[in-house]
Design a protein that fits this description.
single chain, alpha+beta, two-stranded antiparallel ribbon, about 30% helix, about 30% strand, DUF6414
Length: about 280
């Protein structure tokens, strides 16, 4: 496979990336000093009689003044986020700090605090998708029912507002497909404020994720929390059943609400994303 050098960033956590760039430049890269030189030249041609006094002075005189200026600047930090991304990635690769996940052996060798890069599709967490499906179904029923009274407008508005607040104030957890063709998946928490493009570009498309492993296989094999830090975390099967019986009769919505992944044969790692690109 050809190396993807002309990457298009979809997500870049500028705070993490700038901090990491500063660290790797100080530890692994030589600070570059750029010298620029400029010259100023002044040339004057005048009759010789204007300079030397005498009765028989003839001819012309040319005077040239040359001055050179030298300026040095040391490049320690570049604020352009794309340049920072490319240079940080290059430094990590040059110093063997970025692990490419391509095989099962690569996955088995993952340790917490490793910097990794892998390609995968990303899906919304089941918790988010469940609430979004409920809202879409209720909107459809509110719009196309005979009198529109089967759905509470107040309840629908509360669901939509709380979901938007959740998306804008907390990390949204995405789940990869099996990495390198294995049954190991990665949980990737994203903050929408760092999206460089529409979040819809992430769905059902292969994207490359560069990030730091914050939970390895030894801890990730347990159920991974989908905590949203909202009241949805207190929603259980009993309360959801009551809601479903009242508002979602005969709907195709799954009748079980899950706050955790059900871990069967799937293992998980958790990766804090620094950047994602295609």
């Amino acid at each position: 496979m050809l190396d993807n050098r002309a990457i298009i960033p979809l997500y870049a956590n500028e705070n993490l990336l700038n901090n990491l760039f500063t660290v790797v430049v100080q530890q692994y890269a030589q600070i570059r000093t750029v010298t620029t030189r400029s010259q100023q030249s002044i040339k004057i041609t005048t009759p010789l009689a204007n300079i030397i006094k005498g009765p028989y002075i003839q001819g012309t005189c040319t005077i040239e003044l040359l001055n050179e200026f030298a300026n040095q600047r040391t490049e320690e930090r570049i604020s352009k986020i794309i340049v920072v991304l490319l240079e940080t990635k290059g430094i990590l690769e040059t110093n063997n700090l970025l692990k490419k996940i391509n095989t099962k052996q690569d996955i088995d060798n993952i340790q917490e605090n490793d910097y990794v890069e892998f390609k995968s599709t990303l899906s919304k967490s089941p918790q988010i998708k469940h609430i979004e499906d409920i809202i879409k179904y209720m909107e459809m029923k509110h719009t196309f029912s005979a009198d529109g009274k089967e759905v509470s407008s107040e309840t629908l508005a509360k669901l939509k507002n709380s979901l938007e607040e959740w998306k804008n104030s907390n990390s949204l957890k995405f789940i990869t497909s099996g990495l390198a063709g294995t049954n190991t998946k990665a949980v990737v928490p994203l903050q929408l404020k760092y999206m460089q493009d529409s979040i819809d570009d992430l769905y059902d498309n292969y994207v490359t994720v560069m990030g730091k492993v914050v939970k390895g296989l030894d801890r990730g094999n347990k159920d991974i929390s989908l905590s949203s830090h909202t009241y949805y975390d207190f929603l259980d099967d009993l309360h959801f059943k009551g809601f479903r019986d009242k508002f979602l009769k005969d709907s195709p919505i799954d009748g079980v609400y899950r706050n955790n992944f059900i871990n069967d044969d799937t293992s998980f790692i958790e990766v804090l994303p620094i950047a994602m690109y295609i």
